[in-house]
Amino acid sequence: MPPRKKKVVGLIKLQIQAGQANPAPPVGPALGQHGVNIMEFCKAYNAATENQRGNVIPVEITVYDDRSFTFALKTPPAAQLLLKAANVPKGSAE
Fold first, then answer.
1. Sign, CA torsion 33/26/62/49
2. Does 3 map to a domain?
3. What's the structural domain count of the chain?
4. pLDDT per position in the chain (94 positions), as tens?
């Protein structure tokens, strides 16, 4: 008999600095309302993105009915990559 398939109860999309996830907003409240262990996610995310420090890495977190989660890292936003390539600290103030 195959194992029971977990039921998905939430999908959370966030953009977090690589290697710098912490329980403060926006991470804490977004995960807390789904009952996810926030520190467990932060440690896993920081370990997975350690080599990409300095970039904003979008992450898609799937939350299951047993309060477990999986996450998938996406590529950094194009605007972020262009600013970094042009060596500009931030966009136009206008």
1. negative
2. no
3. 1
4. 667 788 989 899 999 999 888 888 889 899 989 988 999 999 999 999 999 888 899 999 999 998 899 999 999 889 888 888 888 877 777 6
Closest CA relative to residue 61, chosen from 15, 17, 18, 12:
12
Q: Kindly report the number of other CB atoms within 10 A of residue 49's CB atom.
A: 20
Question: Is residue 15 assigned to a domain?
Answer: yes
Q: Which of these, 63, 59, 61, lies nearest to 19 by C-alpha position?
A: 59
CATH of the domain at 61: 3.30.1550.10
**The amino acid at 55:** N
Range of the domain at 52: 8-85
CA distance linking residue 51 with residue 73, whole number of Å: 13
Collapsing DSSP to helix, strand or coil, 17 comes out as strand
3-state secondary structure of 27: helix
